[in-house]
Amino acid sequence: MNPSPWRLPEFSLRFLAIWRRNFLVWRKLAIPSLLGNLADPLLYVVGLGFGIGVLVKEVNGVPYITFLATGIVCQSTMNSATFEALYSAFSRLSTQRTWEAILNAPMSLDDIVLAELVWAASKSVLSGSAILLVIWLFGLSNAWTALWVLPIIFLIGLAFAALGLCVTALAPSYDFFMYYFTLFITPMMLLSGVFFPVEQLPAAVQAVATVLPLNHAVELVRPLLLGRTPEHVVLHCGVLLGVALVGYHVALALCRKRMIK
Amino acid sequence: MAPLTGAPPLVDVRGLRKSFNGIAAVDGTAFSLARGECFALLGPNGAGKTTTLKLLLGLSNPDAGEIRLCGLPVPAHAREARSRVGVVPQSDNLDPDFTVTENLLVFGRYFGMTADTVRARIPSLLEFAGLSGRAGERISALSGGMKRRLALARALVNDPELLILDEPTTGLDPQARHLIWDRLKQLVALGKTVLLTTHFMDEAERLANRLAIMDGGRIVARGSPREVIEANIEPQVVEVYGDDVKAWLEAEGARSAQRHELSGETAFCYADDPRELLASLQGRANLRYLHRPANLEDVFLKLTGRELRD
């Protein structure tokens, strides 16, 4: 009897060898990669923060640039994890056949997909931290609770990496990812309270926004950076963790179907 | 065809079946490899060779059949079994972001080897692969032959008991092919077991002590190269070329040969005793001919036909 693609993942520390492979590649390109991580969100914060900040002085009692920067931390983490789980993982899956090579060693797809998940989340921590650095340098936050943001960034990274890997497992080519961005990532970025409070949206849209994972991320990160205690911590963390775990299992099953015919 | 020794076979495949969308890719294949053998799976494109290898490595799930690799049942324990196997894949999947050394180091880690252990093996692996002095080279700077040799070195990083190669010399120039053959012979001499697929007859004839010809997912002939030739085809071949070859074949050739085939402007005449054929060709200035012993390619074409497979 052949194993079902939907069987539960088998956890092993073997994934670390694959994580280290990706880390070694990243290390070779670390400087341009770090600059990219910093430049893109910095442009958002400075451009929109000062631009719109002139028009909108305060949001919920917080200067607009601070409001925006605390949202951009989450959005930047999401983007970084998503890009890694889509384009980079797809290169290794398809173009470069790296996964194929790894599967000839005593590794399973469980190990490979877990390594990709944790790697994309690790990389997103760098992006998220880069914005944290900007926030501190601009003096937008000096709350010690901000340190709690680091593990939460990792959790956000895991959630979006898991979703991205599901898309990668289904992708016939790079072009496929445009659908995911247009239909999922961009609407989520606009509806999750990154640029403006969710309460500004019509009630029906607000209902949609409350289920979006990025919204849960923002609900956790923004208060922490402003030195407040977030509400519903267990709910928000639970949603992100749930998306990460279920997403990982679905991504793995789809990869098994794709690669082990 | 079971190995004669009492030791269990390193590879044992029975009644293997696999179809994709209702078309059988592997249709009841069975074979086994004893330790120290070099076994070749021969077949035209689409014969089911690569699918057989994937099934053997547990990278595809069989519809039916039993597979044991290094004594372990596959696919149930495929991952463990692969730790004792080295694989040279058909298409290049070296890591393009890494140097030659980094490729070996990273791959060794997949086998749970420490960097020090791999590092200690790298000089001898590179020397074996004829890549000494290229340790720091990027993959893009290597020629096709060098890449294939690096893939061979990478497959040996875990000192495997069994080496599996999928069309190891396809796309290589003659010099590069001979080098690969030479290295594979050395490995067999060292006691490694080798399983390779190929559609080059000379490759199988040179390297394999046993082979199986596959077509349409089935094994249609098997044995040592000599046995396969003796069992399947007349020992002598006369190839005749020229404008009048058709007329000659109809008038005389067909009668004198046990079997003949006309392919384009060439007549292939097979016979136990070619004297009558050769006599009839004397004095025919417009016909050229080549008399040679039958080889594996003749068997291959007889069993799998002359139509294109792609």
Please, could you describe this protein's structure?
Chain A has helices at residues 15-28, 30-55, 64-95, 98-103, 109-137, 149-170, 177-191, 203-209, 213-225, 233-259; strands spanning 58-59, 62-63. With 261 residues, chain A is an all-alpha fold. Chain A has one domain. Chain B is built from eleven helices and 14 strands. Chain B has helices at residues 49-56, 78-82, 100-110, 115-128, 144-155, 174-189, 201-207, 225-232, 245-256, 275-281, 296-304; strands at residues 11-20, 23-33, 38-42, 64-69, 72-74, 85-88, 162-166, 193-198, 210-215, 218-223, 236-242, 259-263, 266-271, 287-293. In chain B, the strands form three sheets. A six-stranded mixed beta sheet of chain B has the order 6-7-8-3-9-10, with helices on both faces. Chain B starts with 10 loop residues before the first strand and ends in a 6-residue tail after the last helix. The mean pLDDT of chain B is 92. The A-B interface holds A 2-3, 14, 17-18, 20-21, 24-25, 28, 96-98, 100-108, 259-261 and B 20, 57, 59-62, 75-76, 79-80, 82-83, 85, 87, 89, 91-98, 102, 106-107, 109-112, 155, 158.
Q: Output mean pLDDT of chain A.
A: 93
Distance between the termini of chain A: 14 Å
Radius of gyration of chain B: 22 Å
Query: Which sequence of strands runs across the widest sheet of chain A?
Result: 1-2
- Sketch the topology of chain A as an H/E string, one letter per element: HHEEHHHHHHHH
Gross morphology of chain A is globular
Which key terms come to mind for this protein?
heterodimer; A: 261 residues; mainly alpha; two-stranded antiparallel sheet; 73% helix; 2% strand; B: 310 residues; alpha/beta; six-stranded mixed sheet; four-stranded antiparallel sheet; 11 helices; 28% strand; globular
